[in-house]
Structures are given as C-alpha cells and as structure tokens.
Write a structure and sequence with these properties.
The protein has eight helices and eight strands, in the order E-E-H-E-H-H-E-E-H-H-E-H-H-E-E-H. It is an alpha+beta fold and 176 residues long. Helix 1 packs across helix 3.
C-alpha cells in the first residue's frame, strides 16, 4: 500500500506500507534460498520451482544481481545461470558442466577411477557413442577432463581436487 502525505510546502512524500516491504523480502529470500540449494539453476527452472510470475521474478533477480547478492553467469547461447556468492569462479565452471546428467555421470565415473577409455565410459553411461563423444568434447573444452594418448585414448579429470570440492559443496540430487 502506497500512501502519499502532503507536507507544509505542498511536497508529497511516499510511504511504502510494511506489508509490501515484507512481501518483497519474502520473495527475495525465497529466491536466495532456492539459488543456495541449487547452484547453477537456470531461469526457467527457478521460475517453475518458485511459482512466481515471470515479471516478478525478473524484477527481483535484477535487484539481487545489482545489489551483488548473487552471481549470474550468461553464456553465449543465452543461457543464464544463478549462483550464490559462496561459489568461487573456478567452481562455477565445473557446476555448469555437471548440471547435465550424462556429463555428471562421466565426471563421477572418472572420480571413482583414475582414468578410463572411451569404451569404458560408453558402457558405464549406457548412452550411444555420439552422445558420450559430445559430452567428452564439451568437458575437454571446458578444462574439466584431459585426454591421454598411449595405445588408446584415456580420459581423466584435470583437477580432481576441485571437482571433489564442488561435489561436496553442492547436492547432486538437486541437480537436473
């Protein structure tokens, strides 16, 4: 509720009722909680999870970003992801890749095993070769895995400690 009060010099002051302010705070709190619980969440996922209208959510996310209460990552393909401030930039990169189920399966498989061949990864994920190849290519381009060539190509994590730290920090079950 907005109340206009006239003062002595015909100036008007605007007062915002406490009800509107508390609703705004609740909205921002709900968004912050969802982003904290699911780092790297996309806009549409956040929209579905919160039940807010598009305009309300866009407004509050813009305010949270401007006040530097969240990190926002925009990719070249117009994909926007939201992160809590507690996530470091290096960790953001890992999260972006492990949000996809098949890529996450590959990373978890490589966490359990030092290095594996393409054939091992295909058998583990139970995906077609082209799908696994696409995900391995993305993970390699993103600096998550490296490819060693001896008799056969073997794949391993580039920074095992970083990936382990990220996996502990986030809840894998919450990832889509």
């Amino acid at each position: 509720m907005i109340i206009l009060e006239q003062t002595a010099g015909r100036e008007y002051k605007m007062k915002v009722g406490s009800r509107n302010k508390s609703l705004t705070d609740k909205t921002k709190s709900k968004l912050l909680k969802r982003i904290d619980n699911s780092p790297g969440i996309r806009y549409r996922e956040l929209l579905r999870a919160t039940g807010f209208s598009n305009g309300v959510m866009a407004y509050h996310l813009k305010k949270l970003e401007k006040s530097k209460r969240i990190k926002v990552s925009r990719s070249h393909r117009r994909s926007t992801r939201f992160y809590p401030l507690s996530i470091a930039s290096r960790e953001v990169r890992v999260i972006e890749y492990i949000r996809r189920r098949t890529a996450r399966q590959i990373v978890l498989f490589l966490l359990r095993h030092e290095s594996r061949t393409f054939k091992d990864i295909v058998q583990f994920t139970k995906k077609v070769r082209s799908t696994v190849s696409w995900h391995l290519s993305r993970l390699r381009d993103g600096g998550i895995i490296t490819v060693g060539i001896s008799n056969t190509q073997t794949y391993r994590l580039k920074n095992r400690d970083l990936v382990t730290r990220v996996m502990k920090k986030i809840r894998i079950n919450d990832l889509v």
